[in-house]
Specification:
842 residues; alpha/beta; eight-stranded parallel barrel; 38 strands
């Protein structure tokens, strides 16, 4: 289906609470997105449900749309609460829902069939097939993954047939959104539940073939810079993207105001054909308000040398220069280019970056400048308040960053503390003036032509004795909109005869029109009809009714291996199936033939991401003639369209409840693996409510904590920028990332050169095996990362004995602790006391 006709895209701003909301409105946002206190991917900020009607009235009175981020996975026991919350959101006249969980899309459609739904970037959509699947579920707009280039976005937009939205500014996650389980694995705080612990912003060391690799100053090797696409705005408009999204619901009102203003101006200029190059001053302003280092990164194509600088994980602001030498009470610095554009001055906050020699655990020196003096040879002297800086902790060569500029706060104040509306809505007036009849004025908003009011004069118009009504007089009187939220852009006049209208009468008609427009906008309703919540309850009950099943059949073991030597051990174990998940796509053919020849069912796994231009992977997989473990929604849609009948949905489809699981199974999947966000008890509950024979659980694995487009092999083991010139170090070296606790997390590249960082400890399910068997589950998968053939064989044998009743689950746990390379953990399967106290679902 062809893409929709181009239109001027929305500027979509982040809102944490009221100050950011007002800042976004005044700086010119077309729409804002924000969360409530629950079911949102930014759990620390948001409005209460009780505040929502007032929020929507505030936005609508200013012609701004409000989108609610309902973008977390929803657990089974929360579905009824989710339904009630959705109904309240829709009843409060929210303009759209931003959703991650496809089960929630179905639930929202049941409650209000006409509600507008946007797919969150958490859905990890990276190709047109993924867009098509979202559309088939009832989504009207898709927010694409941030790892796409503009060429890839263009290819998707041309095929999408629905609105496409992209991020243009703000923080980048190192992992694909919706595909990060680090917080879940290491802290029980799921990023898919709005509780990201930002493990990507921590320092790591790199082990290459067991030896420590020198990283220089790049200690934060999983911490990307911040997206900056101001220079790409003309191209983005040409592509036909529907909405430009600014990241930052945790940011302050200054950030919201200044980023919104910058992108508002850039879009308006480009749309009018007046696009100008981004000036150094414009860039510096956005660097100063918040930045870990700005760049377009993946938007302009892959360059793994640029995505992660690695010196620091937090806001740096603007690089101002280096320490030349240290005196007893001041710093002498060599100023950089930025100082000539926006000079350092008293009151500025700076930090001294000593990443070249200081440990990342040490606190950095910094403070506010008290005095700036010119020094010899173009150098500068920086003086600080007494005892504010410990000069003995600085060295020549340390970098100096301005982290705070008070002038920036003053610039933002025009939007954050506006006494009168700054952003005004363009108004058109059509006037009909016929002598002997009342004067008729019709007022309409440029951005909302359907929002219009009509104001008529109380009496018929008399003939003019001297000066009659003219277009100039109308413009003069109707443009006096003062402190209102409107500005006059156009007046048209249909004139018959020479009627007379006094200025006072026109002024009164203008005041009446403004009052009516304000009332109409403030009380604007989306007009969405709510169904009775009973229909939602029936849907939940139908999808989640405990399924009848016989006594569990014999358990089946399914092994997943990532190397030929692991395959040798797997074949000796004689499992029900062996899944090949190799880096070298074509190299797996001989291994696949070996599995087929053994009589064991052979399976292959798809990549977790599929982009435009990677269709050859699909064709290759189809040509293998074997069952496929599907990890990408786009790949799933493409495979089912090709009528491939042996598909197993993997954890990365993020099925967290019976509604979502049922939707995927309806697409023709033979089985599905629950998301890693579910604990052991929830997995058993899901099996009982769906069909335990349709569930394939992972009972042993190294949890895939990060799945990232950024390649650490290319970045640190080559001078190349992508797979084209990196020399493929991923095929020659074994890499692990060592954290501050000493754990070494394996890193493996896939066929698309994307990296997965796996948890060091093996996550195993021995404490849940008996419960899962009682729930009827019989398909158990064991996945291996860097295990040796001997370890693979030992792990498989222990599970085989347990599932045959020859070893207790407790002994299984003890055995696995000995066999696993770095020990074991219950990890995401852990069942907390809070969960145990939840009421039992009937």
């Amino acid at each position: 289906m062809p893409s929709l006709a181009p239109r001027k895209p929305e500027i979509m701003s982040p809102v944490g609470y009221w100050p950011q909301l007002y800042a976004a409105i005044e700086a010119g946002a077309d729409a804002v997105y924000f969360g409530l206190k629950h079911f949102t991917a930014r759990a620390k900020v948001g409005f209460s449900l009780e505040e929502l009607p007032e929020v929507m009235r505030t936005l609508h009175s200013r012609g701004v749309r409000g989108y609610i981020t309902f973008n977390t996975l929803v657990f089974e026991h929360e579905l009824l609460e989710a339904a009630r919350t959705l109904a309240a959101i829709i009843d409060a006249d929210a303009d759209a829902l931003i959703v991650q969980d496809y089960g929630i899309v179905r639930l929202a459609r049941q409650i209000a069939p006409d509600v507008e739904i946007h797919a969150s970037t958490q859905t990890s959509i990276t190709n047109a097939e993924g867009v098509d699947l979202a559309k088939s579920f009832g989504v009207q707009r898709v927010n694409l993954a941030r790892e796409l280039s503009l060429d890839e976005v263009r290819a998707i937009v041309q095929k999408a047939g629905c609105e496409v939205e992209i991020f243009v500014h703000g923080a980048l996650c190192v992992a694909y959104s919706g595909q990060c389980f680090s917080s879940e694995a290491w802290g029980g705080r799921s990023a898919n539940r709005g509780q990201c612990a930002q493990a990507c912003r921590l320092p790591y060391e790199m082990l290459v073939d067991g030896r420590l690799e020198s990283l220089g100053d790049a200690r934060y090797l999983l911490s990307p810079g911040d997206l900056f696409a101001l220079e790409q705005i003309p191209e983005i408009l040409e592509i036909g993207v529907a909405a430009l999204k600014i990241e930052g619901r945790y940011k302050d009102a200054n950030y919201v105001a200044l980023t919104t203003r910058a992108y508002r101006k850039a879009v308006d200029e480009a749309w009018a054909g007046r696009a100008q190059p981004v000036t150094p001053a414009q860039r510096l302003e956005l660097e100063q308000v918040y930045s870990r280092g700005l760049g377009p990164f993946f938007m302009t194509g892959t360059n793994h040398q640029l995505v992660v600088n690695g010196r620091a994980p937090r806001h740096r602001g603007v690089y101002m220069g280096r320490v030349e030498r240290l005196e007893s009470n001041h710093v002498v610095m060599e100023a950089g280019v930025a100082h000539r554009i926006a000079p350092l001055k008293p009151g500025d906050g700076v930090v001294f970056d000593a990443a070249d020699w200081r440990s990342p655990e040490e606190k950095e020196e910094g403070g506010r400048i008290y005095q700036v003096r010119p020094g010899p040879n173009g150098l500068l002297e920086l003086r600080f308040g007494n005892s504010e800086i410990r000069f003995e902790r600085l060295r020549p060569g340390d970098r100096i960053w301005r982290t705070d500029d008070p002038n920036l706060g003053r610039a933002a104040r025009a939007y954050t503390q506006a006494a009168a509306p700054v952003s005004r809505q363009p108004v058109r007036v059509r006037v009909t003036a016929i002598e002997g009849e009342p004067l008729v004025t019709e007022w309409s908003l440029d951005k909302q032509p359907q929002t219009k009011v009509m104001v008529k004069s109380a009496n018929p118009l008399s003939a003019a004795q001297n000066r009659g009504l003219s277009l100039e007089l109308l413009r003069e009187q109707f443009s006096r909109l003062g402190n209102t939220a409107y500005e006059l852009t156009d007046v048209t006049l249909q004139l018959e005869g020479a009627p007379f209208v006094s200025a006072s009468q026109l002024n009164q008609m203008r005041r009446d029109a403004v009052e009516q427009l304000q009332a109409l906008q403030s009380n604007r309703s989306t007009g969405i009809t709510l169904h009775d919540l009973e229909t939602a309850r029936l849907l939940i009950d139908q999808a989640g009714a405990p399924s009848a099943h016989n006594q569990p059949s014999a358990a089946e073991l399914h092994l997943l291996v990532r190397a030929p030597d692991q395959l040798d051990a797997a074949l000796e174990s004689r499992p029900s199936s062996i899944t090949l998940d190799y880096l070298d796509l074509y190299g797996l053919k001989p291994s696949l033939e070996r599995v087929k020849a053994s009589g064991i069912s052979a399976r292959v796994a798809t990549p977790r991401i599929a982009k435009p231009g990677e269709e050859r992977i699909l064709e290759f997989l189809l040509g293998l003639g074997c069952p496929i473990v599907v990890r990408s929604s786009g790949m799933l849609n493409a495979l089912r369209e090709r009528q491939h009948s042996q598909l197993i949905g993997d954890f990365s489809l993020n099925a967290a409840n019976s509604l979502t699981a049922a939707m995927y199974l309806e697409l023709g999947l033979s089985r599905i693996t629950p998301t890693h966000d579910l604990n052991g008890a929830q997995i058993g509950e899901l099996a009982r409510r769906v069909d335990p024979d349709k569930i394939e659980v992972i009972a042993y694995q190294h949890l895939p904590v990060f799945h990232t487009e950024h390649c650490v092999f290319c970045r640190f083991l080559s001078t190349g920028t992508s797979y084209r010139d990196c020399g493929r170090p991923c095929e020659k070296h074994r890499v692990e990332l060592k954290d501050s606790a000493g754990r070494a997390h394996p890193v493996i590249a896939d066929v698309g050169c994307r990296n997965t960082v796996f948890g060091a400890e093996a996550q195993e399910a021995s404490s849940h095996i008996d419960e899962w068997r009682a729930a009827g589950i019989r398909h158990f998968r064991l996945e291996f990362a860097h295990e040796s053939p001997e370890q693979v064989q030992a792990v498989v044998e222990a599970f085989d004995l347990t599932l045959k009743g020859k070893m207790t689950a407790q002994k299984l746990g003890s055995a696995l602790r000995k066999f696993a390379p770095q020990g074991t953990t219950e990890g995401s399967l852990f069942v907390s006391k809070d969960y145990l106290q939840l009421p039992v679902l009937q």
